[in-house]
Amino acid sequence: MIRAIIVDDEAPARSELKFLLDETKQVDVIAEASNVREAIEQLKEHNADVLFLDINMPGATGLQLAEALKRLKFPPLIIFVTAYSEHAAKAFDVNAIDYLLKPVETDRLNKALTKVKHYLSSSGQGQQIDRIPVEKSGKKLLVTTDKIHFIMAKDDYSYLHTETDRYLSTVSLAQLEARLEPFGFFRVHRRYLVNLSCIEEVAPVSGGTLLLTLKGESESIPVSRRRVASLKKALGL
């Protein structure tokens, strides 16, 4: 069972979310809190896997709590539950694993719980999870780093390519490079940042450069000449 704490200043919202979580048969709601101070006290008493955290609350905000929890050696996972979509990009800075809009839909909640179980089983509790804020069809979304095959810079924007889709991000490629390097991403070209785990073929081309073939991608990624040696070292070639 996933151990959860619900943090929301509105009692009806806490009750509704607890009902939905109980219905899933996957979550044990071990505590509730109506503000950040109470949440901290509950975290001292309970070992939670995940916080379902409202953002706008009297006093300190949910974003401020999430930022503070990043300093812990083993912080709980964070899922924001809010009525305001404009905060999605800020979740990028505090490593939230998901962002649910009120009223919470059952299907969307189940998808969030699937992510929690995945990270608890494969990454271990406490390992920070990075998610990139993106836009698609007028919606703001968060894409996990393990889903990204490569990122291409164009003008002042970045385009994140997954196996099934492409997303727009207003975060610069330089910022993404600094953020994603610990997750196995490598800057192969001034315009391209590549997930090393997605590389299937490295082909030499004239001039001493390389072309990369990525899993599930028809487009080859060029490697600039000055990055060839460091890429080979990173790949153990």
What report would you give on this structure?
The protein has 237 residues and is of the alpha/beta class. The protein has 2 domains: 2-129, Response regulator (Rossmann fold, 3-Layer(aba) Sandwich); 136-235, OB fold (Dihydrolipoamide Acetyltransferase, E2P) (Beta Barrel), CATH 2.40.50.1020. Helices cover 29% and strands 34% of the residues. The chain has helices spanning 11-24, 36-45, 62-69, 88-91, 106-122, 173-180, 228-235, and strands at 2-7, 27-33, 50-53, 77-82, 98-101, 131-136, 139-144, 148-154, 157-162, 166-169, 185-189, 192-195, 199-205, 209-214, 221-223. The strands form 4 sheets. Strands 2-1-3-4-5 form a 5-stranded parallel beta sheet. A hairpin with a 2-residue loop joins β11 (185-189) and β12. The chain is elongated and about 65 Å long.
CATH top-level class of the largest domain:
Alpha Beta
Question: How does the overall form come out from the CA principal axes?
Answer: elongated
Determine the strand fraction and express it as a percent band.
Answer: 25-35%
In the CATH hierarchy, the third-tier topology of the largest domain is known as: Rossmann fold
Largest sheet: 5 strands, parallel
Low-confidence stretches: 124-129
Number of domains: 2
Instruction: Provide a count of the helices.
Output: 7
Termini gap: 43 Å
Alpha-beta classification: alpha/beta
CATH superfamily of the largest domain: Response regulator
* Rg (CA only): 20 Å
Mean pLDDT: 88
In order across it, which strands form the biggest sheet?
2-1-3-4-5
At CATH level 2, the architecture of the largest domain is 3-Layer(aba) Sandwich
Order of helix and strand elements from N to C terminus: EHEHEHEHEHEEEEEHEEEEEH
Number of extended strands: 15
The percent range for helix content is: 25-40%
